[in-house]
């Protein structure tokens, strides 16, 4: 359920109108366990509580104002909330925008089109049983020290064109991060990108491309040269059969011939209040120290206790193999997710 805040009466007295904002968010709590095995020997295990298993805990504020003549102004400020002991708050999104017959224009920190493309094709969404979705983490999560790019893009201008062809959408992005650019030093994390999206009945298809200045690739241990460009591309497709939704995604993030490639197939089967889900992933990290092959499987289910409350069990198994040495991580998350 969404709540509406009304601005203080003093503002109304000055402007003659009330400013309104909608509060939204969710709280997620789960019992989690993760076990790591290297070359057949258990090296680590942990059991605890987490607030980041089925869509991270967060709170946000958003609003819209009709400026007349078909023009609207909007804003959004969304913060991640960590509910563990000594947990903190971080800014996930914060932008202002205008929309009308020309399309929609937003400026500020925003999720990238690549994030929405890949996560939209994952039945488990943005998080999972052992700390995150496999393909999403490999391609767009924690890929460098230059902010969240390409997961979330700070200092970004995003433009969505009006639909000239039924079902087709086009979006353009320009990021002016300018990190470490003082005194004439090379810029880092600046990027340009585009997204092509198509929807027709039960079918959704998307392709995105981003070129990022000097972006490290942590998943492949690649430290980007100051003058280099990191290229991220993603393709995703979903088809709703009614009795089940099948999905596929494929992407890569590369710099100077090295990086990470990954693909995933998935299925979600609704069964009344329950939804059963399964994904299978493969990938490869190409690094200077040798190639690493990647495999992952995630399965589990959600049970809707109401429109806003879901109980879930998500199980994740992944294996990375380098020089014949296999590292396996098995984990699960058993929890409750409430949206408001």
Helix-residue proportion:
under 10%
User: Could you tell me the radius of gyration in angstroms?
Assistant: 21 Å
**Helix/strand class:** mainly beta
Q: Give the biggest beta sheet.
A: 16 strands, antiparallel, barrel
Q: What's the number of helices?
A: 3
Task: Please name the defining characteristics of this protein.
mainly beta; 340 residues; 6% helix
Walkthrough of the structure:
The protein is mostly beta strands and about 350 residues long. It has three helices and 18 strands. A 16-stranded antiparallel barrel has the order 2-4-5-6-7-8-9-10-11-12-13-14-15-16-17-18. The chain has helices at about 10-15, 115-120, 135-140; strands spanning about 5, 20-40, 40-50, 60-70, 70-80, 90-100, 105-110, 150-160, 170-175, 190-200, 205-215, 230-240, 245-255, 260-270, 275-285, 290-305, 310-320, 325-340. Residues about 5-15 have low confidence and may be disordered. The longest helix is centred in the middle third of the chain and has 8 residues, at about 115-120.
């Amino acid at each position: 359920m969404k709540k509406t805040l009304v601005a203080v009466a003093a503002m109304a007295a000055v402007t003659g109108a009330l400013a309104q904002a909608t509060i939204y968010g969710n709280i997620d709590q789960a019992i989690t366990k993760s076990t790591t095995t290297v070359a057949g020997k258990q090296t680590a295990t942990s059991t605890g509580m987490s607030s980041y298993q089925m869509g991270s805990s967060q709170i946000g504020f958003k609003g819209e104002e009709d400026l007349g003549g078909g023009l609207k102004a909007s804003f959004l400020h969304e913060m991640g909330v960590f509910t563990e002991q000594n947990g903190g708050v971080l800014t996930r999104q914060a932008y202002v925008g205008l929309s009308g017959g020309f399309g929609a224009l937003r400026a500020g920190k925003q999720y990238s089109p690549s994030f929405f493309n890949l996560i939209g094709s994952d039945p488990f969404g943005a998080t999972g049983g052992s700390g995150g979705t496999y393909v999403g983490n490999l391609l767009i999560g924690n890929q460098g020290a230059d902010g969240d790019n390409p997961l979330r893009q700070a200092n970004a201008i995003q433009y969505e064109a009006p639909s000239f062809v039924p079902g087709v959408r086009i979006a353009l992005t320009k990021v002016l991060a300018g990190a470490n650019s003082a005194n004439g030093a090379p810029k880092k994390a600046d990027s340009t990108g585009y997204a092509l999206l198509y929807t027709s009945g039960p079918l959704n298809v998307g392709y995105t491309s981003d070129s990022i200045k000097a972006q490290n690739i942590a998943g492949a241990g690649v430290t980007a040269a100051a003058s280099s460009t990191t290229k991220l591309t993603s393709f995703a497709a979903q088809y709703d059969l009614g009795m089940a939704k099948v999905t596929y995604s494929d992407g890569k993030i590369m710099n100077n011939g090295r990086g990470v490639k990954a693909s995933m197939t998935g299925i979600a089967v609704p069964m009344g209040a329950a939804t059963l889900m399964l994904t299978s992933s493969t990938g490869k990290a190409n690094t200077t120290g040798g190639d690493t092959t990647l495999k992952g499987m995630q399965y589990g289910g959600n049970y809707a206790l109401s429109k806003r409350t879901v109980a879930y069990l998500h199980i994740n198994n992944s294996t990375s193999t380098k020089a014949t040495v296999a590292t396996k991580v098995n984990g699960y998350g058993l929890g409750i997710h409430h949206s408001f």
